[in-house]
Design brief:
The chain is α+β, with helices and mostly antiparallel strands. The protein has 11 helices and 11 strands. A hairpin with a 5-residue loop joins β7 and β8.
Length: 283
C-alpha cells in the first residue's frame, strides 16, 4: 500500500493523470503501490503499471527492469502498462497496443484568440456555468447520448460509465455544468484538482438534444479560470484520441508534450513468456 506521506510526495511530483493515486484507485478499484520511482495498481489477477517515473528521467531499460520485477513477484494473469516508449521486444509481446500523445495547456502562456473570445461571449449569453460535485440522472443521460454517437474504445467507454461512482467518492473533482435558459444540461466537464502542479481534464461531453453553440468552448474557458483559481501551472488535457478532439485541444493552445504507449498482455501469451525468460537472464 501507499502511505499518506508517499501519496503527498506523488501528488507533488505528478505530471500525468495516472499519477493521481486517488483517481486511479477509484477508477481501477486496484490497490496502489510504489516501487522506487514507479506506481502500480494490483487487484485479484491483474496489474496496472504506470511507466512514467516520478523523479528520474525515463530510461527504457530501467522501466523494463522494474516492470519485470513486479511481474515475477506477483505473477498477474493480466498486465496493462503505459510508458513514453516501449522497446521492440516488449512491443512484440503485446496483445493490444495504442500510441498517442498527452496534450497540455500552459496557463502562463496561453493566449485566447479573438475568435474564441467571441465564441465564449456568445455561449455565455445563452448558458450559465455552475460548479458542482454530483453526477445526476441528466449527466448519465447525456453520457449515454454521447456514447451512442461517438466511436469510443472500450477503456474510454468504461471511463465515462465509471464517472458517477468516481464523483461520489472524489474529494478533489469538480463538475462544470453548462445549462441553458430552461435549466437543461447542455454540456459538462469533469476536472480533477488533486495534483499539485496541474489540473486534469477527465472527461467532457455535450448534448445534441439540448445543443447550444460553443458550449464546449465556454466550459474550456471556465476550466482555465478554475485551474488558475487553484494556482495550477498547466492543464493536462489527456490524450489526442482522434483528429477532431486534437483540433479542439489545439485551438485552445493545447500542445503535445509527452508520448503515450499502452500495452496489454496476458501471462499465457507465448511472446511474453519468452520475453520474461530472456529479461530474467539479463537482469
Amino acid at each position: 500500500m501507499i502511505s499518506a506521506e508517499q501519496e503527498r510526495y506523488i501528488f507533488h511530483k505528478a505530471y500525468v493523470p495516472e499519477h493521481i493515486v486517488s483517481l486511479m484507485v477509484l477508477l481501477s478499484k486496484g490497490e496502489p503501490f510504489l516501487i522506487e520511482d514507479y506506481i502500480y495498481f494490483k487487484k485479484d489477477n491483474w496489474l496496472i503499471f504506470i511507466g512514467y517515473p516520478l523523479e528520474q528521467q525515463f530510461v527504457t531499460k530501467n522501466f523494463e527492469k522494474k516492470l519485470n520485477e513486479v511481474i515475477q513477484q506477483l505473477k498477474p494473469e493480466y498486465t496493462w502498462f503505459i510508458a513514453p516508449e516501449v522497446s521492440p521486444s516488449f512491443a512484440r509481446a503485446c496483445r493490444e497496443r495504442e500510441s498517442d500523445q498527452y496534450y497540455r495547456v500552459d496557463l502562463e502562456r496561453v493566449e485566447i484568440s479573438k475568435n474564441l473570445r467571441r465564441a465564449v461571449e456568445k455561449a455565455s449569453g445563452e448558458l450559465t456555468v455552475e460548479k458542482g460535485k454530483d453526477i445526476l440522472k441528466e449527466h448519465e443521460e447525456l453520457i449515454g447520448e454521447f456514447m451512442k454517437r461517438e466511436k469510443l474504445t472500450p477503456r474510454v467507454r468504461e471511463l465515462f460509465l465509471s464517472m458517477p461512482q468516481y464523483i461520489t467518492h472524489s474529494k478533489t473533482a469538480v463538475v462544470l455544468n453548462a445549462r441553458d435558459k430552461k435549466e437543461n444540461l447542455s454540456a459538462f466537464y469533469i476536472i480533477e484538482l488533486a495534483a499539485e502542479k496541474f489540473a486534469t481534464y477527465v472527461i467532457g461531453c455535450h448534448s445534441k438534444r439540448n445543443y447550444v453553440p460553443y458550449a464546449s468552448d465556454l466550459l474550456f474557458f471556465e476550466m482555465i479560470n478554475l485551474a488558475r483559481e487553484y494556482e495550477k501551472k498547466y492543464i493536462n488535457l489527456g490524450l489526442g484520441v482522434n483528429e477532431g478532439i486534437r483540433k479542439f485541444k489545439e485551438k485552445w493552445g493545447g500542445v503535445p508534450f509527452l508520448r503515450y504507449e499502452f500495452c496489454e498482455y496476458t501471462r499465457g501469451y507465448p511472446a511474453m513468456r519468452k520475453l520474461l525468460k530472456s529479461l530474467g537472464s539479463k537482469i
